[in-house]
Automatic annotation (TrEMBL):
<dbReference type="Pfam" id="PF01464">
    <property type="entry name" value="SLT"/>
</dbReference>
<protein>
    <submittedName>
        <fullName>Lytic transglycosylase catalytic</fullName>
    </submittedName>
</protein>
<feature type="domain" description="Transglycosylase SLT">
    <location>
        <begin position="95"/>
        <end position="203"/>
    </location>
</feature>
<dbReference type="InterPro" id="IPR023346">
    <property type="entry name" value="Lysozyme-like_dom_sf"/>
</dbReference>
<dbReference type="InterPro" id="IPR008258">
    <property type="entry name" value="Transglycosylase_SLT_dom_1"/>
</dbReference>
Length: 297
């Protein structure tokens, strides 16, 4: 009996040793071959925005944490990144073309990505609206109509053209693109005062409000995650990008009842309003307006 008990415990000890060895092997296996989403950002990599490299020497040691924080937030907010991914081909190629034509850095395309997640119909509690999140006064300064009937901040083409003009003006005032981006968020006057009061001309040296302080790091992280998106997200999770569809413009003047005009032209009111979010009511005032509609031509 005693020998049987000793054998039992000996066999049990061998069993648990085997279990521990197997567990150890599995841990090593999954560490080497498991979920590889996300990346350990090595500071040997040059993280840059519009050609300006993020400084990484001892003076800017906190930049790593500021950047990592924004990357982590993008990873957490997977649902929004999926929307950005799907809408990319509907919006970004047009922005890239506009930037190139204006002689502006391609990285500025990430501004509407973080501002509106490439949605053309969003508004903020502060009063900003549209793809580029223009405030009303800035929009009017660059030629956009903003009133109770029409708000061209929601017009992708016209608001993008206005953004190009705004970037050019900001570039005349600020000699660094990181400052141009910060001014886009803060406002040129507010940023200029901060630069003067803090005796610097470097974004990374500035103490700013929380939103503007994060702004360039949000751009850096969005650029980095986008360029490495399949390392952060599974391709199956992201799904397919939306394909651009054919549209054409129909020039109109004053319209008292858009729904009735749509019906008479074999269009759906929903279609007209969806493709033209700049139309704020069911009517259009005097003037010449180009309405975007779907076509099968």
């Amino acid at each position: 009996m005693r020998e049987q008990i000793q054998k039992y415990y000996a066999d049990k000890k061998i069993f648990w040793r085997i279990v521990i060895v197997i567990a150890f092997v599995l841990v090593i296996f999954f560490q080497l071959n498991g979920d590889k989403r996300g990346m350990d950002i090595s500071f040997s990599n040059k993280l840059s925005f519009a050609g300006e490299v993020m400084p990484k020497n001892w003076r800017y040691a906190l930049n790593r944490e500021r950047f990592d924080r924004e990357v982590a937030l993008l990873e957490i907010n997977e649902a929004q990144f999926i929307i950005i991914y799907k809408r990319w081909n509907l919006i970004v190629p047009m922005i890239e073309k506009s930037l190139k034509k204006a002689g502006l850095p391609d990285d500025l395309k990430y501004i509407p990505v973080i501002e509106s997640a490439l949605r053309d119909n969003v508004s903020s509690s502060a009063g900003a609206a549209g793809l580029w999140q223009f405030m009303p006064d800035t929009a009017k300064r660059y030629g956009l109509v903003v009133n109770e009937f029409v708000d061209e901040r929601f017009d992708v083409a016209k608001s993008t053209a206005a953004a190009m003009l705004y970037f050019k003006d900001l570039g005349k005032q600020f000699d660094k693109r990181t400052l141009v981006a910060a001014a886009y968020n803060r406002g040129e006057n507010g940023l200029q005062k901060s630069l003067e009061s803090q005796y610097t001309n470097n974004f990374y040296d500035l103490r700013l409000n929380n939103e503007t302080s994060r702004y360039v790091f949000r751009l850096l992280s969005m650029k980095y995650v986008w360029e490495n998106k399949y390392s952060f997200f599974e391709s199956e999770t992201l799904g397919d990008m939306y394909s651009p569809f054919a549209t054409k413009y129909m020039s109109v003047k004053k319209i008292d009842d858009i729904a009735d005009r749509a019906r008479k032209n074999n269009l759906w009111y929903f279609e007209v309003k969806k493709l033209n979010p700049w139309i704020m009511t069911n009517s259009l005032p005097d003037g010449k307006w180009d309405i975007n509609i779907i076509t099968n031509d």
